[in-house]
Amino acid sequence: MQGGSSGIGYGLKYQARCISDVRADTDHTSFLTGTLSLKEENEVHLIRLSSGGTELVCEGLFSHPNEIWDLASCPFDQRIFSTVYSTGESYGAAIWQIPELYGELNSPQLEKITSLGAHVGKIKCILWWPCGRHDKLISIDEENLFLWSLDMPKKAIQVQLQESAGLHNLSGGAWDPHDVNALAATSESSIQFWDLRTMMKTNLIERSHVRNVDYNPKKPHVIVTAEDESGICIWDIRKSKAPVQELPGHTHWTWAVRCNPEHEGLILSSGTDSTVNLWLASPFSRDELTSETLVDSPTRQPDPLLNSYSDYEDSVYGLAWSSREPWIFASLSYDGRRQRLDNVKLGYVSLEIALSWHSISIGCRSAFAFAEGRSDKSRFWVPVVLAIIHGHVITNKDFTSKIWRFSVLTYVHE
Amino acid sequence: MEVDDVPLDDKAKRMRDLLSSFYAPDPSASAPSFPATHASLDAINSASFDPDQYMNLLVQKSSLEGLLQRHVEMAAEIKNLDTDLQMLVYENYNKFISATDTIKRMKSKIVGMETNMEQLLDKIMSVQSRSDHVNTSLFEKREHVEKLHRTCNLLRKVQFIYDLPARLGKCIKSEAYADAVRFYTGAMPIFKAYGDSSFQDCKRASEEAIAIITKNLQGKLFSDSESIQARAEAAVLLKQLDFPVDSLRAKLLEKLEQSLVDLQLNVEDISSASVDSSDPSEQRNASMPIPSNAHEASVREFAEAICAYRVIFPDSDEQLTQLARDLVSKLFETTEQYVKNRISSADLLHVLGIIWTDVLLMDGVVHEAVLRDHCLEAARMVVKQYVANTFSHLLHDISDALTKAHIEQKDGVEKDSLQVALEASKKRVLQGSMDVLLDFRQLLDDNLELLAKIKDWIIDWVQGGFQDFFRELDNHFILLSGRNNSSSHDQVLAGLVLVLAQLSLFIEQTAIPRITEEIAASFSGGGIRGSEYGPAFVPGEICRIFRSAGEKFLHLYINIRTQRVSVLLKKRFTVLNWVKHKEPREVHMFVDLFLHELEAIGNEVKQILPQGVRRHRRTDSNGSTTSSRSNPLREEKLNRSNTQRARSQLLETHLAKLFKQKVEIFTKVEFNQESVVTMVVKLCLKSLQEFVRLQTFNRSGFQQIQLDIQFLRTPLRETVEDEAAIDFLLDEVIVAASERCLDPIPLEPPILDKLIQAKLAKTNEQNTISQ
């Protein structure tokens, strides 16, 4: 498996479930991760990709009082993050600040800004305002949704709005980056859409066993869900009857799904079958797809599964794209017992997959070959896309758009 | 002789030349003068003969003897020439004398002819005068005779007019309408000129008579009993009478159309008859010919009527063509309706045969309609529809077979209902396809000209039909399995999905090859669509579709089954507060439910899927060594498990084990019982592990999990194929639980044993009670 072998590893001492990209850190590619250990002392690791890009360096190691079930980095301040933790019997959530001179201290302590105390039930996750500097936060527990207003200088936080989700236990959610008043929350039997101004449910997709949800950052109204049975589903929330596309790929539960922050259609999913799958979802809607298949039924659709990274020892629960270098992602395997191995893995969208489309309706033969180019300076595996087109004139609209889609993957890394 | 001849000829020729030169007007022209230098002995005959020179030459050249001889010769020659000359002069003189005599005689005979000529002239003059006299004397009488003759004619005509009504009446009586019409039309000009005055009565009377005639003629025209000639004559007569024939024609046409509708009904009778008769097949042969004969007769009648009409109104091809086309279209419309019912190709053939005979009949009558082409076109549509319908019926059958089983299963009456359903639907697929092919074979084999012409089309349709049919079937399967509508998964019976999986496999591996073979045998060719498209039936593609469908369904089945267990597990883990769990007293009942589910799966699977190659027998021996090695190991460890050290050692063993081998948990599922069950068990255990990982346990909670898992170990090992993986997963669950436990102290093995034995005893007891 190319992605695994070319990926970089980092070992946490204990089992861990959550990893988060530090979006506010524009100078480095860094991730925050927190361990999940019931009995030992838990840690928060600040991991940074070394300037050479060859290894993951622990930039900061902070002890955390409890096992961490969820961790989210603040989008505007790289030193601030939130955690959801469990004491074994009860749950809590807090916002932390990394001390400024942590490099010089021997055992730096995290500075607790405030804790989100209004929760009673099992807290599931904390969501930061999706982009830019804003004081709004959302926290979700099994029964309630909270909208918080964070007052940073005063280090205080207030519940702005609270709403009970009803009968079905919530399990997580995602904040719409296109419409900051919209929120998608997953529950046992459905995906609920909330309007944060009124705290009312606006829409509902009946779908059971949804584990995770993510908005497509490039295209409004499109969400991706991870499910127990059929891998990931892509939905247009305006058409809630059936998914636009289903991408079954994991043999067991699909735990997490993440859309690439830059490149539309590039989706990562991780599952309890110890694999991470990289997908390229077709940008076409279902109607266009069917019309295309009608025109050209014998030729197969290109496999949307670009790569399957299966070099994990245990279930992969944590998954994060780097927003600074969007062809890098971090995956976090639960594998805590095998300390000499790395549970944090950096994968690259290393596309050595050769796709070939035979004659899209005009008899034009084309082959796309993805080659990995290796830059000596950075020793990065950089995907270089070579589009070799045999044939004549490309008149087909779809075809050109496909070429376009692949051309966005072309990076020349100096 | 020849020696004599030549000199004789020479001689005669010279003679003649000499004579001619003698008579010639210009002797110099015939004998050009020779110059003296050219003088020779031969020049004696030429005009420029010079005697002196000749002499000199002769003297010089010849000897004396020669000269003497020459002298004798010349003397003889001169003598001869003199006699000839004398003869010629004498002959000329004789002729001159006889000519003078003749002229003298003519002169004497011409005298006295003048008087005879004058006498003749006198006589001719007298004859002329006499003839003129006779002519003038007869002229008057001749004038009179001519006048009398004219009057007589007129009188006869008047007489005819006066007699006309009576004569017409007589004609009517004797039905000599043709004469009547001839008389009447003859009288027409007179009636037109004098009808208002002198012949008023006459005209009225004859008009009345003619009205009767017209009526009779119309009657005759419309009566079917009359012969065609008679009717045609009537039409012609009516036309002569200036009767508005167009309206008549329209009426007749209407009548024909009326009969067309009647014919239509007949066709329906036939189809209904054949439908009726198709049920009791013995009656069929007896009952079929009657309606068909009746139909044929009526069509023949109709054809005759059209023929008659054509004779009567010769310039009405267009309407007739239309009519004939209407007939064919209507026939095919009925057939189309008929085809919509479920009919065998024999019935279709029968109907088509009838129609074709009709068409041939009609075609004989109306050439212009190009009925054959029209019919061909229509037949093509019908046959195409028939092919399509047959396939849709087949699809319906198969789906019926599946859903019926579905319902039966719901009732829970039959235990082997899945197997029954599978067998039934297998049979339907194969037998149905074969029947369909046989049916179409019949179409092809029939030597009906109509079908022979569209044979290639039929082949293409059949091939394309199969292609579409299987695609449709695949879609239908997916619809049945409810994949498109995920929310209804729970309603879809897992068994049905399993049946679909196996059925897809069957179609791919057995049905398609058979059908391909059959098609190759009897439906090769075609190619109307053009060779660039290739054959319409692409078995490879269908196989591919069904292979992937089969796998999909199998996975779906596993998914559905796993989902149920998953729900069970979810309830088990989320409802309870594991941190405050009480001490384990017995194996939890979710284990029973789980095993029950597994049993149900086993039941379903046993009915549908084949038994796999018992591969795990081999691994069994291997597995038993490993498990027998690992089990005492663990128990040994468990014996010392009260201490913290032992606990960590337990973990270490697991770690050691993990390092040894990475067990491939999720292998490819195969189409056999063990593989599917194993897969379900694996997925369930993995789910169990994941659920455990999401909880936090106190000691009792952990012990409960340990107990449950320990209990599961034996029955699971019995059911599955891959013991090593199952063992691994079971251990994983315990490890996960211990990791999530605040105080992971395992149960003592004796207690564990005791509880398990108690549980086993209890289940046995229950079993005996229920039995």
From TrEMBL, chain A:
Lineage top rank: taxon: Eukaryota
Lineage: Eukaryota, Viridiplantae, Streptophyta, Embryophyta, Tracheophyta
WD repeat segments: 247-279
Keywords assigned by UniProt, alphabetized: Repeat, WD repeat
One Pfam family linked to the record: WD40
Domain EIPR1-like beta-propeller: 5-279
Protein name as catalogued: WD repeat-containing protein DWA2
GO biological process entries: protein ubiquitination
Family: Belongs to the WD repeat EIPR1 family.
